[in-house]
Amino acid sequence: MEEAGWSKLCGYSIYPWSIGGVFTTVVIMKDDLKLAFDMGDCCRQSIPCNHVFISHGHMDHISSIPQHSSRRELFGMKKASYYVPDHLLDLVKEVASTFHQINVTDKILDNLDVRPVTLQDKIKVARAYFVCPFPTVHRVPSQGYILYRRQRTMKDEYKHLEGPEIALKAKERVELYNYTEIPDIAYTGDTTFELFLKSPHPDLLKVKILIVETTYIDEEPGKDIIRQARDRGHIHLAEIIDNAHLFENVQHILLMHFSDKYSENEITDKVFSILPESLKKKVLVATIAKRLY
């Protein structure tokens, strides 16, 4: 994809449309995979997403579900599935139903495909991809998500076989392959840094791409800026820098959800002027919304 704002990482196309407190919608595409994490704004890039995973109920992460559903219907697309923490299920359906009453011609809103997601769930989203939630630490109940890729490799004892022989074995229902579940992308949504310190999900720090909120990046003399970030349920850049060793196995870190008080240039200049070399080579910043919004 050549449009400005798309990042190509490990074969994935990622569109991180996010400003802290304003909106967050992160689009992920690869092969037959089209999904979004959160739907705080129905940006054009999110419309093809047939799977949407909601991290929590704050407006800047959830408010555009009805619009997303309606715009997909406008373009003749099938209904999308919206996965929400289970306590939000009835509330989201009620909101969609209210919009249906306002606009009675938009029938899809009266039968929205909203599905509750618990921490034990494993949701298939494409032929070789599935998503699992994990708990996060915010001011309201919240959860992040890990996108896994199921990789198939031929068993050693069958690697010498030619095509017709493989086809015959398959017809005989011989198990020819080993399958490995690879954690490719983690999305944190809104959270404090405690997420990474207290028994994190075992795959969280093994992913190829970590999409993590970094709402605050500035310094305020005489104030405990990290404590302020935690009290607000967010992460300060200083916490990531102070714990850089935790991310040694992560290939790429996409920082997002920067406060609206920072400009695009402020973010870029500040982040890359203070990051240690171990992080600088793997960090990207999601500032496209600062430029276009």
TrEMBL record:
Taxonomic superkingdom: Eukaryota
InterPro entries (alphabetical): RibonucZ/Hydroxyglut_hydro
SUPFAM superfamilies: Metallo-hydrolase/oxidoreductase
Protein name per the record: Uncharacterized protein
